[in-house]
Write a structure and sequence with these properties.
The chain has 2 helices and 28 strands. By secondary structure, it is mainly beta.
C-alpha cells in the first residue's frame, strides 16, 4: 500500500512540474484545472458462508481524474481485504495520464496489438500509446501477465509460474487505410520455481510473436483487411528459448486472416479466409483456437425502413490440418441473426451460430448460490461455445403517461465445454435457459412491479441438473427519487436427473438514499434458505455501501437537495 501511495504522489508531483514548465501560457485561461472522481466503500457481513475466514469483508473502489492545463491524469483503484478471485489479484491500481497525443498506463491495464499476439491480456506494469498528428503512431508495454501461484488441488487450480511480457507496435496511417506491425515477447520466470510444479507436467514457457495488420480501402465501396501472425513458442525454456528456432523445445507456428467486403445502399457482402496452424499459441491471449482453416461468406441487409434487419455468415471449417488428430472433421459453419419489429411496441430477435468461441458464462445456479456481487466476478473460467441459439421477444402492451405494461420472453440454447487453466472440463455440455416475465409501472408513483419465471438446464455426460422457479420484484422511489427501495423474492427448485434434490429460497431487501446528488448511502440484506440432500441451511448477508462523487469546479454548488 505504501508503494501505491508513493507512486501516486510521485506522478502527481512529476506531472505538476512538467505542466508548470511547459504550459505557463495557459495559466489564467478558462478551464485550466478540473478535478472529478468518486469513491465507494462496502462493508459486507456474511453468516454461515462457504468461507471459514472472517465474516466481515471490506471493498473500496475509487477513481480520480485531474485535468491540468491540457494534461489528463485518470486514476482508479480497487482494494479488498479478501481474495475474491484466485487466478488474478482482486486488489488493483490503475493510472492512465494523457497529454495531447500521448497516453500512459500504469498499474493494471490491458492492451491489444494483434488478434494473434497481444490480444487484451491484462498486465501489471507500464504501457504507452503515442498518436501524434502525423501518420505514424506507436504503442509499447511491459508488465507481469501472470502471478506465481502454488495452486490449489481442492479448488482445482493448477500452479503457475510468474510470467512477464513486453510488446511494441508501430502503425502508419494514410488516406485509404492503415499498416501496422507488432512484436510481443513473454517468458515464465524460472529463477523462482514453483514447488511440485514439474510433477504436474507444467513447464516454463517462452513466446515471441511477430504480427502484421493491413486495412486498405481499394474503392469507396470495396475494402480489404489482413492479419498475419508468426509465433515462436518454447514449451520449456530451460532447454531452448523462443528465439532458438532449432531448439528441442521450440516450435514455429503461423496464422493468417484475410477479409474482402463490398458495401451498397441496401447492405454489404464479403468473404473471409482464416488459417491457424495446429499448435498456434500466444501467451498474450487467454485462449486461442488453432488447427483449422475457415472459408466464410458474409451478407447483411436492412429492409422495410429498418423494420427487418438480417445478417448471415456461412462457410466451411476444416481441422486436423497436419493429420495428427484422432478426428478429422469438415463442418459447414453458419451464423444467422434476424431482427423483426412489426411495430414500435413489438420486437423479435433470433440468432443461431455454430462457430467456436470462448466466453465467460454465469448460469442461474451461480447467481442463486452467490451471496454477494463479488462472488460472481470473472475468475478466468471460460467456456468454449460450439453452438449457440437464442430467441427474444419484447412486447409493450401499453405505454401511457400513468401506466406501462410489458411482456418479455428469452430462450437460449448452448452446447459447450468448460476450460480452466487449459484443462477441459464438462465436455459435451448443453445449457438451456429460458425466462418470461411481466412488468407493470405506475409512473406518477415511481412504482414498478415485475413477475418473472426462470428455467435453467445443464446437461452433461454424467447427469442433468435443472432449476426453475418464480421471481417477484418490487421497486419504489420516494422524495423526488432520492430514496430508492426494492424487494425481491425468489424460489427455485433444483432437480438432478428428473428427481428433486432441494430448493433455494432467496429474499433481498435494499434501501438507498442520495444526499445532495453527491452522497449515496445503501443498505441491503439477503436471506437464503437452501434445502439439499436432507439438510436445511440458512445464510444471511448484510451489506452497507457509502459512495461519494465530486467535481471541481462544480457546475452549481447550490444545486443539491
Amino acid at each position: 500500500m505504501q508503494k501505491i501511495i508513493f507512486s501516486v504522489l510521485f506522478m502527481f508531483v512529476f506531472y505538476n512540474t512538467y505542466v508548470s514548465g511547459q504550459q505557463l501560457d495557459k495559466i489564467g485561461k478558462e478551464g485550466e484545472i478540473k478535478v472529478d472522481g468518486g469513491i465507494s466503500v462496502d462493508q459486507v457481513y456474511r453468516e454461515n458462508t462457504y468461507n471459514t475466514g472472517n465474516p466481515w469483508s471490506t471493498v473500496a473502489t475509487g477513481r480520480l481524474n485531474t485535468s491540468l492545463y491540457g494534461l489528463s491524469i485518470p486514476l482508479s483503484f480497487t482494494w479488498s481485504n479478501e481474495q475474491w478471485t484466485y487466478t488474478q489479484p482482486f486488489n488493483q491500481f490503475s493510472l492512465s495520464p494523457s497529454y495531447k497525443w500521448v497516453t500512459m498506463h500504469l498499474g493494471w491495464s490491458s492492451m491489444s496489438f494483434s488478434p494473434y499476439g497481444l490480444s487484451g491480456h491484462s498486465f501489471a506494469g507500464v504501457g504507452i500509446e503515442a498518436a501524434p498528428a502525423g501518420k505514424f503512431s506507436f504503442s509499447a508495454m511491459y508488465g507481469r501477465l501472470q502471478k506465481e501461484l502454488p495452486g490449489d488441488t481442492v479448488k482445482g487450480y493448477d500452479p503457475t509460474y510468474r510470467r512477464t511480457g513486453t510488446g511494441i507496435r508501430g502503425a502508419y496511417n494514410f488516406d485509404k487505410g492503415e499498416v501496422s506491425m507488432s512484436l510481443f515477447y513473454a517468458a515464465d520466470d524460472t529463477h523462482k520455481p514453483v514447488e511440485y510444479i514439474d510433477s504436474l507436467g507444467i513447464t516454463p514457457k517462452e513466446n515471441l510473436v511477430l504480427s502484421a495488420h493491413v486495412n486498405y480501402r481499394i474503392t469507396d465501396n470495396l475494402s480489404v483487411i489482413a492479419d498475419v501472425g508468426i509465433s515462436n513458442l518454447s514449451n520449456d525454456r530451460r532447454y531452448s528459448g523462443a528465439t532458438d528456432f532449432n531448439g528441442a523445445a521450440t516450435s514455429r507456428y503461423h496464422a493468417a486472416k484475410t477479409s474482402l467486403s463490398y458495401s451498397t445502399s441496401i447492405g454489404s457482402i464479403g468473404g473471409t479466409v482464416e488459417y491457424v496452424e495446429p499448435g498456434y499459441e500466444s501467451l498474450g491471449a487467454y485462449y486461442m483456437v488453432n488447427d483449422f482453416v475457415h472459408y466464410t461468406l458474409d451478407v447483411a441487409t436492412s429492409l422495410f425502413q429498418g423494420r427487418v434487419t438480417a445478417a448471415a455468415s456461412g462457410g466451411i471449417r476444416q481441422n486436423n490440418l497436419d493429420d495428427q488428430s484422432d478426428s478429422d472433421t469438415r463442418d459447414v459453419v453458419s451464423n444467422i441473426s434476424i431482427g423483426f419489429s412489426p411495430s414500435e411496441r413489438l420486437m423479435f430477435n433470433l440468432m443461431y451460430s455454430n462457430y467456436s468461441s470462448y466466453t465467460h458464462i454465469q448460469t442461474l445456479f451461480d447467481e442463486v448460490e452467490a451471496q454477494t456481487e463479488y462472488e460472481l466476478m470473472d475468475t478466468l473460467r471460460f467456456t468454449q461455445i460450439s453452438e449457440n441459439a437464442s430467441l427474444s421477444a419484447n412486447w409493450r402492451l401499453s405505454d401511457s403517461e400513468s401506466d406501462a405494461h410489458a411482456l418479455m420472453f428469452n430462450l437460449a440454447l448452448q452446447k459447450a465445454s468448460q476450460s480452466q487453466s487449459d484443462v477441459p472440463e464438462n465436455t459435451n455440455t448443453t445449457f438451456i435457459s429460458a425466462s418470461s416475465g411481466y412488468q407493470w409501472s405506475r409512473k406518477p408513483q415511481n412504482f414498478t412491479l415485475g413477475l418473472n419465471t426462470n428455467y435453467s438446464r445443464n446437461k452433461s455426460s454424467d447427469q442433468t441438473n435443472e432449476m426453475t422457479g418464480p421471481v417477484l420484484s418490487i421497486r419504489k422511489s420516494f422524495f423526488e427519487k432520492t430514496l430508492q427501495s426494492s424487494l425481491s423474492v425468489a424460489w427455485n427448485g433444483t432437480y438432478v436427473d428428473g428427481e428433486s434434490s432441494g430448493s433455494v429460497f432467496t429474499t433481498r431487501l435494499s434501501q438507498s438514499y442520495t444526499l445532495k446528488k453527491k452522497h449515496r448511502f445503501s443498505l441491503s440484506g439477503t436471506y437464503n434458505n437452501r434445502k439439499r440432500d436432507g439438510s436445511n441451511k440458512q445464510y444471511y448477508t448484510i451489506s452497507f455501501r457509502y459512495s461519494y462523487n465530486f467535481s471541481w469546479p462544480g457546475k452549481d454548488t447550490n444545486n443539491g437537495q
